[in-house]
C-alpha cells in the first residue's frame, strides 16, 4: 500500500491539527480528493491542487467504449455485448477528455511521476470484458488506485435489478483480483438499497464513492428532443446525501466511504465526515473558485476541529452522531412535513406516530 513518506504535507505549517487519514488503503495528507474532471488533465492545475493540500487527485474518466477499442487493437477477442457497445459508440461522435486508452496510460504515467499525492485512474462502465487486463495496465502505469464509475443502467438492457447488481459485483471482484492497488466503486442514486450493495461489494471494493452524478436530462420545447447538460453542483446540496452516508456507514461500517457532490464549504465537508464519510470529493467548487478553494475548505475543517479540541480526524469520527431510533426518525419526519400546521395539531400527529411505533 501507499506510504505516507511519498506524500509529504504541502499545507500551511500553522495548521497544527493533523488531517492525515487513510481511505481504502491510500494514505492521504488530508481528507479531500479532487474528483474526476477535465481540470485534472492539466499539470499546472494538479500542482496547484497538491500545494493547496489535496489528499489525492482523480483523473478524467476513460470510458468502456475506449477500453473495448484498446482490446480490439490488442488482438483480444471481444464478446457480443462488447461488439454492441462498440458499434453504438461508433455511430456517434464523442468529444473524449482523453482520446484513447494508450493516451490515458501515458497520462497516468506522467501524472504519477510528477505529482507527490496519489493519482487515481477513473474507469466509466462495468460491462466491458477487457477491464481486468486494462486495470493491470493502469497499475503498471503508476496509478495509486482505480475508481470504477458505474453509470446509470438502462432497464431495457437487463431482465431485473438483481441482474444489474450481480454484474456489477462480479466485475468488481474480477477487477480487484487482477490488481494490487485499491479499487473504489462510484455508485449513483438509482439503486434500491445502497447499504446492501455496499455489503455485497466488501469482497472486491476497498471503498465506495457516494454518489456518482449524471448530466441533467431535459426536453427542448423548440425541437422536442431530449437534451443532457452537465451542471455544477451548488454548495449545500451535499446534505441530501447525509442520510445515505449514515445508512451505509451504519449497516456496513467496514466499507470506507467518500462523499461526492455539493461540497463547496467547510461545513459541507465537516457534515460529510460526521455522517460517516472518510473523505470528501470536490469538483464543482474547484471549477468555480480554482484550486485555492481546497486550502479554504481544509482551513475551515481545522478551525472546526480546533474549536472542539480535536487533534486528529479520529477524534472527529468519534463524535459521529448516532442514527435516529425508529421513534425519533418517525417524529422528525412528521414534524418536517407538518410545519404549516398549528402546534396542537402537530403534537397530536407526533404523539399518534409514537404510539403506533
UniProtKB/TrEMBL annotation:
A Gene Ontology molecular function term of the record: dihydroorotate dehydrogenase (NAD+) activity
Record keywords: Flavoprotein, FMN, Oxidoreductase, Pyrimidine biosynthesis
Known EC number: 1.3.1.14
Listed pathway(s): Pyrimidine metabolism; UMP biosynthesis via de novo pathway
Domain Dihydroorotate dehydrogenase catalytic: 106-305
Claim: rRNA processing is one of the keywords in the record: no
PANTHER family recorded: DIHYDROOROTATE DEHYDROGENASE (QUINONE), MITOCHONDRIAL-RELATED, SLL0744 PROTEIN
Protein name, UniProt field: Dihydroorotate dehydrogenase B (NAD(+)), catalytic subunit
Annotated organism of origin: Rubripirellula amarantea
Chain's gene name: pyrDB_2
Amino acid at each position: 500500500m501507499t506510504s505516507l513518506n511519498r506524500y509529504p504535507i504541502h499545507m500551511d505549517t500553522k495548521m497544527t491539527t493533523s488531517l492525515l487519514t487513510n481511505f481504502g488503503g491510500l494514505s492521504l495528507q488530508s481528507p479531500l480528493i479532487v474528483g474526476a474532471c477535465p481540470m485534472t488533465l492539466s499539470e499546472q492545475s494538479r500542482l496547484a491542487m497538491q500545494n493547496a493540500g489535496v489528499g489525492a487527485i482523480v483523473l478524467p474518466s476513460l470510458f468502456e467504449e475506449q477500453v473495448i477499442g484498446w482490446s480490439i487493437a490488442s488482438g483480444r477477442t471481444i464478446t457480443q455485448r462488447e461488439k454492441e457497445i462498440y458499434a453504438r459508440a461508433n455511430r456517434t461522435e464523442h468529444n473524449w477528455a482523453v482520446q484513447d486508452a494508450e493516451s490515458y496510460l501515458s497520462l497516468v504515467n506522467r501524472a504519477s511521476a510528477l505529482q507527490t499525492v496519489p493519482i487515481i485512474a477513473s474507469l466509466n462502465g462495468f460491462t466491458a470484458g477487457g477491464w481486468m487486463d486494462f486495470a493491470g495496465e493502469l497499475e503498471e502505469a503508476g496509478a495509486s488506485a482505480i475508481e470504477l464509475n458505474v453509470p446509470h443502467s438502462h432497464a431495457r438492457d437487463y431482465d431485473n435489478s438483481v441482474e444489474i447488481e450481480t454484474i456489477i459485483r462480479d466485475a468488481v471482484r474480477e477487477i480487484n483480483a487482477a490488481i494490487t492497488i485499491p479499487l473504489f466503486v462510484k455508485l449513483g442514486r438509482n439503486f434500491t438499497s445502497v447499504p446492501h450493495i455496499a455489503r455485497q461489494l466488501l469482497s472486491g471494493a476497498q471503498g465506495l464513492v457516494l454518489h456518482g452524478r449524471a448530466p441533467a436530462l431535459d426536453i427542448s420545447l423548440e425541437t422536442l428532443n431530449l437534451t443532457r447538460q452537465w451542471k455544477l453542483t451548488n454548495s449545500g446540496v451535499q446534505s441530501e446525501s447525509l442520510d445515505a452516508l449514515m445508512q451505509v456507514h451504519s449497516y456496513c461500517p467496514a466499507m470506507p466511504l467518500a462523499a461526492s457532490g455539493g461540497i463547496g464549504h467547510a461545513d459541507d465537508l465537516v457534515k460529510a465526515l460526521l455522517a460517516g464519510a472518510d473523505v470528501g470529493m470536490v469538483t464543482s467548487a474547484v471549477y468555480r473558485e480554482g484550486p485555492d478553494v481546497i486550502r479554504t475548505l481544509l482551513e475551515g475543517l481545522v478551525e472546526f476541529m480546533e474549536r472542539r479540541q480535536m487533534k486528529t480526524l479520529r477524534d472527529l469520527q468519534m463524535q459521529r452522531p448516532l442514527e435516529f431510533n425508529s421513534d425519533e426518525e418517525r417524529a422528525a419526519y412528521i414534524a418536517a412535513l407538518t410545519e404549516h400546521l398549528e402546534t396542537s395539531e402537530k403534537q397530536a400527529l407526533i404523539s399518534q406516530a409514537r404510539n403506533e411505533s
